[in-house]
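Support reply, case 0932

Customer input (verbatim):
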Amino acid sequence: MKEVFVVGAGGHAKVSIDILQSSGYTVVGIVDDNPSMLGKTVSGVQVIGQSSILEELYRSGLKEAFIAIGNNQIRMKIAEKMERMGFSFVKAIHPRSIVASSVQVGDGSLVAAGAVLNPDSCIGKQVIVNTGATVDHDCMVEEGAHIAPGSHLAGQVFIGKRTHIGIGTSVIQGIHIGEDSIVGAGSVVVRSLPAKVKAYGVPARIVETLI
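Our regenerated output:
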């Protein structure tokens, strides 16, 4: 079995560890910067240290990781830092998800149980397609985005970098949502949204411009 370590010891780590183990990985430890977590276990895996041990892990030969942090901006910042250190990232694809053969899934991305990725869609690196979410044909989900549980993207939808699609949201065909935006839970998106906005509702309307 291939060995990997996880960054982050919160709730998303539980889901990530379960998927990694179900996919044949041995999760050898967790790195988390919360000092109160040191020595504790998450899903049976021990927190072995803070990010200060990353170089030591790399020198020991442990060069593959998975970042189990739900916040898109934080996850991407950590990924960029670790890439510069030489780490590579595994994909966590649940064996009970459905991923069409023509779908591209980027490194470090997670596809949870019950998720469906249909033909010719492209999932960037460090993306989360969470439990029961669906991504129909010819969609583009850029790096660092999060499609929350039970959300549905129709065909040819574009989701920008680090954008969060809240739980239970539906996005109709052909919609473009810019980077660093947030769509609130339960929304129905029927018009395209620009970058750096918060929108929600049925239909979704912009309620805030994000800095």
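We compared this against your earlier run and they match. Two observations from our side: The chain has three helices and 25 strands. The first strand starts at residue 2 and ends at 7. Please reopen the case if you see a mismatch on your end.
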